[in-house]
């Protein structure tokens, strides 16, 4: 199919009198690694929530892979191949890691007739946990995991829905230098396998290493969109982060 | 099939219970046993929504009374056999579950619970003002003297029906727990937003849980008019049904099908014994004390205690 995989057209969102997003237009071609940055409160997570269906946008439209998403509940969007990871990991805490991954396999990947990696359900879950390096912990519960393992589980859960696009909302916040590199390598490998990425991140080193294109949001508006190293030298962007 | 084997096992256990009750040869065993079985059904039904899916329902009495009052109406207008009345009561309560679920399931946590409590009050007010079913005066139901099945009197028959109903409820709850549906319910309980992001159609699953839960509660209530022979709104909608039905799974453990069964057998039996030996007013006190003890000492119930 031609055209971008994700097309965000003039999306707006208000909370009462507060304009959280205003006239955001953004196209993400298949296979791209897009970085989305902006100061705290600039509307990054609101935009992700509007794309993924956690919030409804008041204006504009979101099209994914040729499907108009407006009005679709979040689970339908996941089933169409649009996966996300949450800023703070949100595991299913009473389930084992294997069961955590089985939920999206059963409810998202299988609903499209895809069987996900591996043949059986158990194999599929184990393959995903292996991929993120949690293979040995399939029968433990999330409470036993370290912070980075929790992020990896979050990634495995997102991947379990067999997505075409993954929106990674601050998957690396709070991780050490080495751990950031580990996650980056993992994301790059997934991108090579054909998954389109939107990465929201405050760790500039990671964003710059990962992104092919950078979009900057400030106060609910898109102020820059282009190659990363040009964008971070843009006067408006510098002003937004450092003040004039 | 695993579920089939468990079902057969449950039928065998139930048969043993019935034979044992027959052998004891005291009519009161059936009379008291009926209440314990009724609570197995109620607690198991409550747990499908409350334990598996994480939505605490304070409106048990409403669903239960819908089943009971459906029987009052059917008794006055038809001469259907009891099992059919149970089925109709269950279907009606399930439909009401669907309706209230649709109105209330967008509320989360405490707000949902308060809405179910309000629903029970509304239902009770409606029934109290409905003359055909006796209004606040209550309705009398003359029950047949003889059981149409396996001899004995009618109480034995009601006991047998409630025994069958508990087998069906427990087997269904266990099957759900180990199925894709059960995994979906658990994901809603753990984190509804994350469940939705994982592709789980949360609203549809919550509605299904409410219908199943409400339906079983209605079925548990349907034989009540024949059991008590006099039903008024105050007893049909008694808050003790709601309290007991929440306390039993909490004491037994809410995460699995076994918890409500253990809780209902334990607490139900204790209440029946206390009613006979000490006083009937004591039974609610027992529930209160046990509930406090368990919340402090074993918040995951008896099953959770042993799984540590």
Provide the fold topology.
The complex is a heterodimer of chains A (244) and B (308).
Chain A (H helix, E strand, L loop, with lengths): L5 E10 L2 E11 L4 E5 L6 H9 L6 E6 L2 E2 L5 H6 L2 E4 L11 H13 L11 H11 L15 H14 L4 E5 L7 H16 L3 E5 L3 H7 L2 E6 L2 E6 L1 H4 L3 H8 L2
Parallel strand pairs in A: 3-8, 3-9, 6-7, 7-8
Antiparallel strand pairs in A: 1-2, 1-4, 4-5, 9-10
Helix pairs in contact in A: 3-4, 3-5, 4-5
Chain B lengths: L1 H23 L2 H26 L7 H18 L4 H23 L5 H19 L10 E2 L13 H24 L2 H11 L1 H6 L4 H20 L2 H5 L1 E2 L1 H4 L2 H14 L5 H20 L4 H16 L3 H7 L1
Helix pairs in contact in B: 1-6, 2-6, 2-9, 2-12, 2-13, 3-4, 3-5, 3-9, 4-9, 7-9, 12-13, 12-14, 12-15, 13-14
GO molecular function, one term (chain B): branched-chain amino acid transmembrane transporter activity
Subcellular location (chain B): Cell membrane
InterPro entries (chain B): ABC_transp_permease, LivM-like
Model regions low in confidence, pLDDT < 50 over at least 5 residues of chain A: none
DSSP E strands of chain A, number: 10
List the domain count of chain B as a whole number.
1
> Class of chain B in CATH?
Mainly Alpha
Class by SSE composition of chain B: mainly alpha
- What is the beta-strand fraction of chain B? under 5%
Global outline of chain A = globular
Strand content of chain A: 15-25%
CATH class group of the largest domain in chain A: Alpha Beta
Strand order of the largest sheet of chain A: 6-7-8-3-9-10
What structural category arises from helix and sheet content of chain A? alpha/beta
H and E string of chain A: EEEHEEHEHHHEHEHEEHH
Determine the CATH topology of the largest domain in chain A.
Answer: Rossmann fold
Q: Give the SSE string of chain B.
A: HHHHHEHHHHHEHHHHH
- End-to-end C-alpha gap of chain B: 29 Å
Q: Largest sheet of chain B, described in full?
A: 2 strands, antiparallel
Instruction: Give the strand order of the largest sheet of chain B, numbering strands 1, 2, ... along the chain.
Output: 1-2
Count all strands of chain B and give the number. Answer: 2
Overall helicity of chain B: over 70%
CATH fold naming of chain B: ABC transporter involved in vitamin B12 uptake, BtuC
GO cellular component, one term (chain A): plasma membrane
GO molecular function, one term (chain A): ATP hydrolysis activity
Domain ABC transporter (chain A): 6-244
InterPro entries (chain A): AAA+_ATPase, ABC_AA/LPS_Transport, ABC_transporter-like_ATP-bd, BCA_ABC_TP_C, P-loop_NTPase
């Amino acid at each position: 199919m031609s055209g971008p995989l994700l097309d965000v057209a003039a999306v707006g969102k208000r909370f009462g009198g507060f304009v959280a997003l205003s006239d955001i237009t953004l196209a993400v071609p298949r296979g791209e690694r897009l970085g989305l940055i902006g100061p705290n409160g600039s509307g990054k997570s609101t935009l992700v929530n509007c794309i993924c269906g956690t919030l409804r946008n008041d204006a504009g439209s979101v099209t994914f892979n040729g499907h108009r998403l407006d009005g679709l509940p979040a689970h339908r969007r996941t089933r169409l191949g649009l996966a996300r990871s949450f800023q703070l990991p949100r595991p299913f805490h009473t389930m084992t890691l294997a069961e955590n991954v089985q939920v999206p396999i059963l409810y998202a990947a299988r609903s499209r007739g895809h069987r996900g990696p591996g043949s059986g359900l158990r194999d599929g879950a184990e393959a995903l946990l292996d991929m993120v390096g949690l293979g040995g912990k399939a029968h433990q519960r999330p409470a036993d995991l370290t912070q980075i393992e929790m992020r990896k589980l979050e990634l495995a859960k997102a991947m379990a829905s067999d997505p075409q696009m993954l929106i990674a909302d601050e998957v690396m916040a709070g991780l050490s230098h080495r751990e950031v590199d580990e996650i980056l390598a993992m994301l790059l490998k997934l991108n090579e396998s054909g998954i389109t990425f939107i990465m929201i991140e405050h760790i500039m080193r990671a964003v710059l290493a990962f992104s092919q294109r950078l979009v900057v949001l400030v106060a609910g508006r898109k102020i820059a969109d282009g190659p990363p190293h040009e964008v971070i030298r843009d006067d408006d962007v510098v002003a937004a982060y450092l003040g004039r | 099939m695993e579920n089939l084997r468990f079902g057969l096992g449950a039928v065998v256990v139930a048969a043993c219970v019935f034979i044992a009750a027959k052998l004891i040869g005291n009519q009161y065993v059936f009379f008291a046993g009926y209440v314990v079985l009724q609570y197995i059904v109620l607690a198991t039904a409550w747990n499908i929504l409350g334990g598996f899916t994480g939505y605490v329902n304070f409106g048990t009495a409403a669903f239960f009374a819908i089943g009971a009052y459906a029987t009052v109406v059917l008794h006055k207008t038809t001469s259907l056999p009891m099992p059919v009345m149970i089925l109709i009561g269950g279907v009606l309560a399930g439909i009401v579950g669907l309706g209230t679920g649709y109105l209330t399931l967008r509320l989360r946590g405490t707000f949902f619970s308060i809405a179910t409590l309000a629903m029970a009050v509304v239902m009770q007010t409606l029934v109290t003002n409905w003359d055909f079913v006796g209004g606040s005066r209550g309705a009398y139901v003359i029950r047949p003297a003889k059981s149409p099945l396996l001899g004995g009197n009618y109480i034995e028959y009601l006991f047998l029906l409630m025994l069958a109903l508990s087998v069906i409820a427990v087997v269904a709850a266990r099957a759900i727990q180990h199925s894709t549906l059960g995994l979906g319910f658990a994901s809603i309980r753990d984190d509804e937003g994350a469940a939705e992001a994982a592709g789980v159609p949360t609203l549809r699953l919550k509605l299904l849980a409410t219908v199943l839960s409400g339906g079983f509660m209605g079925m548990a209530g349907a034989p009540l008019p024949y059991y008590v022979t006099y039903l008024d709104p105050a007893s049909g909608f008694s808050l003790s049904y709601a309290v007991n039905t929440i306390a039993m799974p909490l004491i037994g453990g809410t995460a699995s099908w076994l918890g409500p069964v253990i809780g209902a057998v334990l607490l139900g039996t204790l209440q029946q014994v206390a009613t006979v030996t000490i006083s009937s007013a004591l039974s609610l006190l027992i529930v209160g004390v046990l509930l406090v003890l368990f919340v402090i000492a074993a918040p995951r119930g008896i099953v959770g205690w042993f799984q540590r």
